[in-house]
Design brief:
It contains 20 helices and 24 strands. The strands form six sheets. An eight-stranded mixed sheet has the order 15-24-23-16-17-22-18-21, with helices on both faces. A five-stranded mixed sheet has the order 3-2-1-4-5. Strands 8-7-6-13-14 form a five-stranded mixed sheet, with helices on both faces. It binds fe (ii) ion. The site of fe (ii) ion has 7 residues, from helix 6 and strand 6.
Amino acid sequence: MIYLGINAYHPDASVALFKDGVLVWAGEEERYNRIKHASGFPDKALMQCLKETGIKHSDLDAVAISKNPQANFIKKVAFALITQPNLNMVFNRARAFTRFAFFRKHFLHLINAPVNSPRPEFINVEHHQAHIASSFFLSGFDRAAFLSLDGLGDFSSAMWGMGEGNKLKVCDRVYFPHSAGFFYTAATQFLGFLKFGDEYKVMGLAAYGKPALIESFRMMYRLKPKGQFKLNLDYFLHHKGQAKIRWEGGIPDQDILYSAEWIKTFGEPRQTESAVTQREMDIAASLQVALEDIYFHILNHLYSITHEDNLCLAGGVAFNSVANGKITRHTPFRNIYIQPAAGDAGTAVGAAAYVAHALYNEPRKFVMNHVYFGSDASRESIVTALRSKGIAFEEIASDEALVKKTAKAIAEGKVIGWFQGKMEFGPRALGNRSILADPRRPDMKDILNQRIKHRETFRPFAPTVTEESAPEFFEMDCASSPFMLKVFPVRHDKRKALPAITHLDGTARVQTVAKESNPLFWKLLTEFGHITGIPVLLNTSFNENEPIVCTPEEALDCYIKTKMDMLVIGHCVVERKDGLK
Ligand SMILES: [Fe+2]
């Protein structure tokens, strides 16, 4: 059976395809239309998916949509009656229904299928059910507790329960307007980071501050029995229908979520152009503690009702890798699987997985233990791109010679663009669309920021390490961390050796690489270890400030306009031998 999953009319629009219970393709629209966190309908990703997989509309058994406007309908009506909504709220709800009424028509038109086509079937999956399915069904666990925690989806911000085999038993939800995601976003906006998806910057900033303002934050929410929490709505605007998200031209834009009470509490919000001061650092550190209050409160309740050692996570809050790295210290859970595309892009995978397993009872045989499900680039396309731009290159025949040359260049302090195989699904570059550098160099963070990334200096760069060597360098609570979604302490005796990836608080957001999940990247790490004694690389995404590069042409454009020293694209190597200009 073939199921297509789609996240549409929402930020991080995306597409995923399951064939006979196996994920065969997954990609975000932003990689194809080049708009960060692209929203709306994933037109280009859908067409690319069908082209690359060779699937026709008549092959599709079902299209699963990770949104169900009818979910939690009674809660929505009750909220509307209690709050006596303004016309805006009514209009927004009506618009949501209308969009989905046109989903089928738009889809069939796009793929050039007859409007009266009996196939495929269209199935709506509640947002958090899709998040949970994306994690539990692909985790490899037969039984696990699960939690989805985010801003908002289908009128709820959290869902938790227990998965077993093909069944998801939902135990509880947190309904709008109470939301850990909105709480974190409000603080992110207050700190002057106004672009959609800027929350991860605040997580990096937290290490510079002290949680001196935690009591002020604790005025903004209250932990309730049975894992529940409530926001103090005096501090927020979203429940008044005044904090909408728009996506004109596909660019998501979230209205301000915090109310005047924040200004009474903390003073004026930081302007985006202003310097980051100790106040902002302390707000970020206090916010991190507050988020962990809510996160671990829910998780400890979840354990108390499931008594499972295994935990599956998804939803935007599951990108908080600092909190994720502390779960085994603050809760009884022992084994944790986090969907690598934990944000809304991952709901495309989850919606299709939900239809396959929960609805149609297909046996679970697929484990998502890597993220390489996007577009590939053939040798011909790479060579054509290089020649069309008149770029001289050397083609290296063997993997061994390729990794030797690349590892040597990195050890010499060069910054490398590394473009290999299928593109990653999810927000992290995990070794196929990466910029790589030497983590041993104290100046490497500044070099990358000045020459390529131009990002805030407080943001750390992350390391990648071979799975077998990870315990030697990092104090991990698990055997592997393949998706760079957990922060762990760098071992005290290794911090001096790894200055470019050790954050101010002595931690790092670790990616481990298993030989079988990405053999070429593993070989490169191993070769770098042979040369330096440290099989660790600094790994950041292959982009400047646009979406991660997808095609050879985009990789070449990024290489040319930034000041990388070398580009390794497939087995072709381009070197900037004339010095940096
Ligand atoms: Fe979500």
